Amino acid sequence: MGFIENIKERAKKQVKTIVLPETMDHRTMVACDTILKEGIANIILVGSEEEIQTNSIGCDISKAKIIHPATSQLTEILVQELYELRKEKGMTLEEARRLLLEDYMYYACMLVKMGYADGAVSGACHSTSNTLRPALQIIKTAPGVDLVSAFFLMVVPDCEYGEHGTFIFADSGLEQNPDSNKLASIAASSAKSFELLVEKKPVVAMLSHSTKGSASHADVDKVVEAVKIAKEKYPSLELDGELQLDAAIVPEVAKSKAPDSTVAGHANVLVFPDLDAGNIGYKLVQRLAKAEAYGPITQGIASPVNDLSRGCSPDDIVGVVAITAVQAQK
Asked: Out of 130, 138, 201, 293, which residue is the most buried by the measure of CB atoms under 10 Å away?
């Protein structure tokens, strides 16, 4: 059974409710049809009945719950709650009402915050910032978590590296230039995400263009310091660095470049030094190795809210909804 098939089966065992606010997109409706037919999750669609009917031609979404913010009795309750949450930041009742009526992602996040849903998925039509800003403002970080970050779950076909070709690439979607403390936090969160989703032991490599002092630069120093912090804060993690990519995943290269490292050659969680490297890395693997790339999946939010690539397919949406449902089970 492949990775995403396993995730779907796990989602079915404890069905959660996921909000899909991008009802202006036909891909959302195709995905909703599949999710409901397969029993992966219960679905709430946020939008007008007319818009949903127009965009769902050819799809069976009869089992989805539809909430139209302009007519729902729930809206005024959510308006008041959003105002209470954000009034210290200067939000007025009028602004809260406008956001919920005009920006369906705010509505989706309020549904999650208030317990009407367990998670939300968006991003097929919207930027990452437009997807995650409401989540960070409304749902906020989970207790004990220093940082919200994002990763891609990569499944590389016919690959002997990582966990039979399965990796987490982090941060590949959110943190632009994390400092050493943030890198350490990303490593810890990513290890937990790997253990939750892949159900295997995480082996974390902190990546660099240097392996164990082979190059000297401030960018290398940042990663070296991150390794030190992570080992002190999370002593149970199997983690090492700084490692070049080949030293991190190829046993033969690891033997020559980092012979004393138990991580080198065996890593399945790859922590990139910055967003440029992480984003370029996942897209190279996705396109050249024809890998499945699920994400960016967020970690560290109190309830799961996940982003989509604007080039996503309906199957991609189904996969991310299944992942979100499994995250919500935790």
From this structure: 138
Does this model's pTM top 0.70? My answer is: yes
Gap between the Cα atoms of 127 and 176, Å rounded: 15
Looking at domain 149-288, its CATH class is alpha beta
Tokens of 238: 């199997």
Element housing 275 (H / E): helix 275-288
Q: What single-letter DSSP state applies at residue 235? A: T
**Token match 């995250």: residue?**
327
Whole-number Cα distances in Å, 237 to 197, 227, 233, 240, 277: 17, 11, 9, 9, 23
Instruction: Please give the pLDDT value at position 194.
Output: 96
DSSP 147-166: --EEEEEEE-TT--STBTTE
pLDDT at 120 over 90: yes
Contact 201, 238 (CB under 8 A): yes
Do 149-288 and 3-140+303-329 have the same topology in CATH?
yes
Neighbouring CB atoms inside 10 A of 157's CB total: 10
**Confidence at residue 122, expressed as pLDDT on a 0 to 100 scale:** 92
Domain 3-140+303-329 sits in CATH 3.40.50.10950: yes
Owner of token pair 């919207």: 126
